[in-house]
Amino acid sequence: MAPPDPKQKQSLQKDKIRILLLEGVHQTAVDLLASRGYTNVEHLKTSLPEEELIEKISRAHFVGIRSRTQLTRKVLENAPKLIAIGCFCIGTNQVDLKAATELGIAVFNAPYSNTRSVAELIIAETIFALRGIPEKNTVCHRGGWQKTAKGSYEARGKTLGIVGYGAIGSQVSVLAESLGMRVIFFDVITKLPLGNASQVGSLDELLEQADVVSLHVPETPSTRMMMGPDQIARMKPGAILLNASRGTVVDIEALAEALKNGNLAGTAIDVFPVEPRGNEDEFVSPLRGLDNALLTPHIGGSTVEAQENIGVEVSDKLALYSDNGTTTSSVNFPEVALPGHAGAHRLLHIHQNIPGVLSAINQVFSENGINISAQFLQTNELVGYVVIDVDAEYSDLALEKLKNVPGTLRCRVLF
Ligand SMILES: NC(=O)C1=CN([C@@H]2O[C@H](COP(=O)(O)OP(=O)(O)OC[C@H]3O[C@@H](n4cnc5c(N)ncnc54)[C@H](O)[C@@H]3O)[C@@H](O)[C@H]2O)C=CC1
Ligand SMILES: O=C(O)CCC(=O)C(=O)O
Questions:
Q1: pTM, whole model, 2 decimals?
Q2: Are strands 84-87 and 62-65 parallel, antiparallel or unpaired?
Q3: Buried (b) or exposed (e) across 98-107, using 16+ Cβ within 10 A?
Q4: Which ligand is nearest the CA of 89, by number?
Q5: Active site residue 345
Q6: What span, in angstroms and rounded, lies between the C-alpha atoms of 362 and 384?
Q7: Per-state percent for the chain, helix, strand, coil, to nearest 5
Q8: Straight-line distance from the first to the last Cα atom of the chain, in angstroms, rounded to the nearest whole number
Q9: From atom 7 of ligand 1, which residue's Cα is the shortest distance away?
Q10: Mean pLDDT to the nearest integer, 207-233
Q11: Are 287 and 259 in contact (CB under 8 A)?
């Protein structure tokens, strides 16, 4: 891959910095950006088809998305000005993180702001599914009356199997125990169980014991289709499957089959292999029309509280990175928490993490007699991030020279 031409990057006044926000990112994001002087914001309600996305992102310095927008390598390679991506959500699987890193584009997200919202939805769905509410509700809407205790159970005493005991899984665990459920979990990492929960050694072990299985893993190669026909068949007869993680984690056709033939009693699904781009588009799924399937339009994290908080959290990270170069909690960049740089100009240099770049950078300063007032360096496997504060009079010269250092990905100056 050819690195972007660093000579094209220019430092800009705030009102010239173009920010593209997609998928109805909350207004708090726009407000926070405005309060920091970033007013050049395009705020759209939906994601965009690839061609339109490329056209808009080619001019953007920052882009904000949720889970729907696919920022592929192709899209990112067409974003020569892009400084950072804000994922206004937890998941970052929709971004090609390797491509973003190789192109010198920082990625931020909101790792905890909607955790509680998802956990609460899962608890509600657990109770509803155990009581057969999705089906009873549908029957009532059709004019029927299904007053029966058959197939209707309390949550108390039932076993909840949580797959992925991270922020959401462990929160679900605590809430479920407060209902009197027994909690077991499976995770690829050994985790400290909260309350009386216990970790099991394999997914199969969990599936064989759980009355309700709830998935809380990220989308990765190891979780893709982790609930296929074999795993679904391994669940207890009459068990319930909940998925509010990612649509690719469950074989949706196999799930539809298990619901139709009665092997599973019910399901609640919030995420789908293919989701509509916006509220105007049709939702297509093999689960449509199945009364024992509670379907929600990827709203696990869609509460007012979560969206307000996410809007502030992610836009704050973007503004801080733009203002002073801080990368704290970036998902793909070396993390640097930077002090202010009053009185100095700050150069931000992102480069491929290959031998020789650092000495070439230092040479720029020694050869040109430029005094460094502060310097910060952090690297990860793919990129190095050097921040250098210099006297204002030298920043133009230093920027010009730094752009020519071999291995440079992005270089900008902050006044
Ligand atoms: N429906 C919605 O609106 C929302 C969905 N999500 C989804 O939920 C996912 C989980 O979120 P968090 O709990 O915050 O993430 P997290 O990173 O805190 O936890 C994920 C857990 O899954 C485990 N894990 C990873 N691969 C695994 C595997 N193959 N088998 C078993 N465990 C595995 C990890 O070790 C970790 O403990 C997110 O990645 C996102 O895709 C998140 C928020 C809202
Ligand atoms: O609210 C959204 O758009 C996405 C929520 C989600 O799936 C996440 O936070 O990972």
A1: 0.94
A2: parallel
A3: ebbbbbbbbb
A4: 2
A5: no
A6: 14
A7: 35, 20, 45
A8: 32
A9: 245
A10: 98
A11: yes
